[in-house]
Design goal:
The chain is an alpha/beta fold and 891 residues long. Helix content is 40%, strand content 20%. Strand 2, helix 4 and strand 3 form a beta-alpha-beta unit. Helix 1 packs antiparallel against helix 3 and helix 10 runs parallel beside helix 12. About 13% of the residues have low confidence. It binds a DNA duplex (15 and 10 nucleotides) through helix 5, helix 10, helix 20, helix 27 and helix 28.
DNA sequence: ATCCTGATTTTTTTT
DNA sequence: AAATCAGGAT
């Protein structure tokens, strides 16, 4: 008894009041709103330990869900420190791992086998492309990427292909609907699921089979979720189903601020105000749409906003989906609910008799007209009957939680749906809300900088983070010549810090895109500083690894066409696309698996003699291997035999290139991973009976562990990663590199109006730092093989001057640039070039210039006719100016 | 069926 | 700069 008491005391020691309250809170739904660095992982892990110590739950009755493997690993480790080996019985994993685990036990109920293959993004993309081809859709007009994105979005909102098809409101959506349907059928046929399916299918499973749901929801007495603000609708539903029995759902969400245009809120004191004027922390009673009229013109050819105008039989029908998506004109993923109220005018047409909308059906209008007209529609934003948070709002993701204005997400691109926090409160009206506001991580300087940056996200002052740690050193902002100079600077500083006694493990470098790591890696290698890259070009995405995995996959899941086509001709065995599609077609007509069809090539009509022979040989070895696989020999052994007997290794050896050598080494590495799996004592993470060790298990494991998630904290490595990966981590010393416009904020995000999300990312980056923060940017950088000149990131400017210690290098001449510029004009064309540009401009690429109105800028391009392209640092615009006429001068 | 060449695209971010 | 792709030559 006394032991228990001291154990509890230890658990609660050093927690502040709200943290302690969260840890010890009893049964029932619990929402934790936690600011950056406020110790939410701590709260989560301590609560887990507390539940066990007080016998609220057995370890096997606890499921803790995170988004990334990294976070899951960290949570597992930290919980392990508190409860010891008992963590093994808990489910501490990502949504996807847990889903896969559940599905593996019950997939047969949904028409899959438990050997189903998991398709990653690339596999899925390929399949989408194939569906496009099959349906004869022009992949130029409808890119696989965009279709895939739409399908993914549909899945994440639990919209089935049928439901999607029902709601189609444009040609584009019709295409998506067609592909979506075909794509899903293909997956089922191939016994495969994509990442989204893992969630969707497990939701289906839990919804359709009471016994299954009952089983899991009774087992999981306590469900805990990290980064709840990043959940999408499917995940929300998933949690609901699992926590439905005991209702012990604890979610932890980060906290910031956002807004929704055109929305009014009722404040706690009864006053009404636009949501734009809310501050984080304000208390709100309710929120609702301000009714508004919008007038928009649609050409009869337009396919925007789901509006369709069709003329047939002397009548014209104007229709929208009932709840169409009126973006700020921006397409499919914005969600202002509106319906057409009436056709205001029809351009170029006499007044026409109209059928009132109501007599057709909402969102439709009909009038008599022989020809198609452009129609000006009056669109009415409908006052909502639902509470405002039933909308998923993009791109800003603003929301109100529990009556308190709060947060957003950096994972908008993945379909994250902030409204879940609201629905949480809606579903669990008795939810307890606890706010964690004190920051235990960073110096006040760093917090002030983060606050200052995030303040630019329209919603004004966020709740300011505060700390007792003290002011700390100023943020070091550095401008360098180019990415190489930047890398050298960072490397030099790291060297210095290490010499002064810092440990390498205390240092992290963040960048926006994975590609940026390369230059830095080069200099780090040269400086002999050990480092690790998190994420990035993934081991499991390498060609040879994917091939090897595809071989294994085919052995386990002979229906997997994707895997089969991948390996059938690598190494080359004389089976080209023609032969393959013959066999594929035959399999389709007969209705058998690709494996079966290929096993009997004689039966395939139109297959050439050479191809038949090739197939026989190939399938011969595959059959032998399959037998071996069924004997359940160790995976590593099977892999080895497979690589030898398929001739894959032989093929690589024959290449005799360094590259092939590298591939062989990678395959050896995969062999090591397999061997490790073979000797591991349990099939990870305990609990589930029947999850015995098998090839299938192995494949699932590596499908979900995207990277060789080997972040070793202990071994004294400097850590490199993208800002996205940095989420949830902290380091004493942080470098944020590549802080230039177009890089960060990223050009593509900028185009799509994702600036605020980028800013949030910047906020995340800054708040990772405990003690020292470096922010660097380069005057020039190579992008897509071409030199570009960038302005410093606006985020740099948003950090108050007095928090920084800015050092800007004197501009250097860009000798190498000029040398390249002359190379661009081949000697033969030199004369023509001269003629076209008679007055050689006084400007060169990279020159600093001053414009009377626009201010400072840099020359980013030269065009014929004496036109210079200048990017201005003031508003980040790029303008083309006539050099001789524009009021500009060199600086 | 395979290989070669020139053209085009690619870089968000994660499971 | 590197990777992927399409079309054509072998």
């Amino acid at each position: 008894m006394e032991d228990t008491q001291t154990e509890l005391d230890q658990l609660l020691e050093g927690l502040n009041e709200p943290q302690r309250e969260a840890v010890t809170y009893g049964d029932g739904p619990l929402l934790i709103l936690a600011g950056a660095g406020s110790g939410k992982t701590r709260v989560l892990t301590h609560r887990i330990a507390y539940l066990i110590a007080t016998d609220h739950a057995k370890p096997s009755e606890i499921i803790a869900i995170t988004f990334t493997n990294k976070a899951a690993g960290e949570m597992r480790d930290r919980a392990g420190l508190l409860v010891g080996r008992r963590v093994r019985a808990m489910w501490v994993m990502t949504f996807h791992s847990a889903s896969a685990r559940i599905l593996r036990a019950h997939a047969d109920k949904l028409g899959f086998t438990r050997q189903f293959t998991i398709y990653d993004q690339a596999d899925s993309r390929r399949l989408v492309k194939r569906c496009l081809d099959d349906l004869g859709i022009d992949p130029k007009r409808y890119t696989p990427a965009s279709i895939q994105h739409q399908i993914s979005a549909a899945k994440n909102s639990l919209t089935s292909p049928d439901e999607y098809a029902q709601a189609v409101g444009s040609v584009y959506e019709q295409v998506v609907a067609d592909v979506y349907g075909s794509y899903d059928r293909q997956l089922l046929r191939m016994n495969a699921m994509d990442f989204d399916d893992l969630l969707v299918r497990s939701v289906n499973l839990l919804e359709l089979f009471d016994s299954v749901r009952h089983g899991y929801s009774t087992t999981f007495r306590h469900v805990l979720v990290d980064e709840y603000q990043d959940t999408n609708h499917a995940q929300y539903r998933w949690l609901q189903l699992l926590a439905g029995e005991h209702r012990n759902l604890m979610v932890v969400g980060d906290d910031a601020q956002c807004l929704v245009e055109g929305t009014l809120v009722m404040m706690a004191d009864g006053s009404e105000r636009p949501i734009e004027l809310l501050n984080v922390g304000d208390e709100v009673l309710s929120a609702y749409r301000e009714p508004a009229r919008i007038v928009r013109t649609y050409r009869s050819t337009d396919r925007r906003d789901g509006v369709r105008i069709r003329t047939a039989g002397g009548r014209t029908l104007v229709s929208t989906r009932e709840h169409t998506h009126f973006a700020g004109g921006l397409g499919d993923n914005s969600h202002q609910v509106a319906v057409i109220s009436q056709v205001a005018t029809i351009e170029g047409a006499p007044p026409l008799p109209m059928t009132p909308a109501s007599s057709v059906r909402p969102g439709m209008l009909m009038f008599d007209a022989e020809q198609e007209y452009d129609v000006v529609l009056e669109v009415e934003r409908v006052p909502l009957t639902k509470p405002v948070y039933d909308l998923d709002i993009e791109p800003t993701h603003n929301f109100i939680a529990n009556g308190i204005v709060t947060h957003n997400s950096i994972y908008g691109f993945r379909g994250a749906d902030i409204t879940n926090i609201l629905e949480f409160e809606d579903t669990f009206t008795d939810a307890k809300v606890i706010k964690l506001e004190q920051n235990y991580r960073s110096t006040q300087t760093i917090l002030d900088a983060a606050n200052a940056v995030i303040r630019n996200n329209r919603g004004q002052k966020p709740k300011s983070l505060w700390t007792e740690i003290g002011q700390g050193d100023p943020i070091k902002v550095r401008e360098l010549d180019d990415e190489h100079a930047e890398a050298r600077y960072v490397t030099g500083e790291i060297q210095r810090l290490i010499d002064e006694g810092s440990s390498r493990a205390e240092i992290a470098v963040f960048y926006r895109t994975n590609a940026q790591s390369r230059v830095l890696e080069d200099t780090l290698v040269r400086a002999e500083i050990p480092y690790q890259v998190i994420g990035g070009p993934k081991f499991y995405e390498r060609m040879e690894i994917k091939d090897a995995i595809a071989y294994l996959t085919v052995l386990v899941n002979p229906q997997d066409v994707g895997a089969f086509t991948r390996i059938v001709n690598s190494p080359r065995r004389g089976i080209g696309s023609t032969s393959l599609s013959r066999v594929l077609g035959h399999a389709n007509t007969v209705g058998g698996s690709i494996w079966d069809a290929a096993s009997e090539p004689d039966q395939v009509p139109g297959l050439g003699a050479a191809a038949i022979k090739a197939f026989k040989r190939f399938m011969g070895t595959m059959h032998t291997l399959r037998e071996r696989a069924e004997q359940n020999i160790p995976v590593a052994k099977l892999l080895n035999e497979l690589l030898e007997e398929s001739g894959y290794l032989e093929w690589l050896r024959a290449e005799r290139t360094i590259e092939a050598q590298g591939r062989i080494e990678n395959l050896e590495e995969l062999g090591n991973v397999a061997a490790q799996y073979d000797v591991a004592d349990t099939p990870r993470d305990g609990a589930e009976a029947g999850a015995e060790k098998s090839l299938g298990e192995f494949l699932q494991q590596i499908a979900l562990v995207a990277d060789a998630d080997t972040r070793s904290d202990e071994e004294g490595l400097v850590t490199l990663m993208t800002l996205h990966n940095a989420k949830g981590l902290e380091y004493p010393i942080v470098f944020m590199i590549g802080c230039e416009e177009q890089v960060f904020p990223h050009s593509r995000a900028l185009e799509e109006g994702g600036l605020e999300e980028e800013r949030r990312l910047c906020y995340v980056g800054i708040t990772r730092a405990e003690r020292d923060l470096y922010v660097t940017y380069a005057r020039t950088r190579t992008v897509f093989g071409a030199r570009t000149f960038g302005a410093p990131s606006r985020f740099v400017g948003e950090i108050p001057e007095d928090l920084t210690d800015r050092e800007v290098q004197a501009p250097r001449r860009f000798a190498s640039i000029r040398a390249r510029a002359t190379q661009w004009n081949p000697p033969a064309d030199a004369e023509a070039y001269e003629r076209e540009q008679p007055a050689p401009t006084a400007y060169r690429l990279g020159d600093d210039v001053v414009h009377v109105a626009f201010g400072d800028g840099v020359v980013t391009g030269l065009e014929p006719g004496g036109i210079v392209v200048i990017r201005f640092s003031k508003d980040h615009s790029e303008r083309k100016l006539v050099a001789d006429l524009a009021p500009i001068s060199k600086r």
